Each structure stands twice: as structure tokens, then as C-alpha cells.
Amino acid sequence: MDHLLTVNSAEFDGESWRAWLPTEDTPASGTIWDLPYEDRTLIQRPPGLMLGDMGGIYVFVCLRCPDRPYAYHSDCS
After folding, report:
1. Where are the alpha helices (DSSP H) in the chain?
2. Are the C-beta atoms of residues 77 and 41 closer than 8 Å to each other?
3. Residue 57's pLDDT band (boundaries 50, 70, 90)?
4. Would you tell me how many other CB atoms lie within 10 Å of the CB of residue 2?
């Protein structure tokens, strides 16, 4: 099966925010972690998803099979 899609509760974490945070969403202070929790949450989780306890869902599909079966795996932090 091939990985098709990942849906996470947050777009970035404390380690990856420099790579994933769009420049226009970066606060003037230069770091998101100085913001109040509510403001930081709006930037880190704009869709408002909470999958499990900040987990994710991973969807897999078999592209070689005629009926295209799929499977998924979910996790929690």
C-alpha cells in the first residue's frame, strides 16, 4: 500500500515551526511561542482539528489493485 494522505491535529510543533509556518503568519516578535496560548493555537491549528490527543490519521491506498482498497492508521501523542 502507498501513503496517500496525512491529516494532523497541528500544522507544526516546537521543532518544525520554522519550516512550516508561513512568513505572513509569523508574529512580529519573531517567535510563535511568545504568544498567548489562544493566539498561538489559531496559528498552529487553523482548522481547529483535535484528532485524539493532538494525533494524526494516515491514509494508505493500493494503486495496483483494481478495486483500490484503502487502509488507515491513527495515533495520539
Report:
1. 17-20, 37-44
2. no
3. very high
4. 8
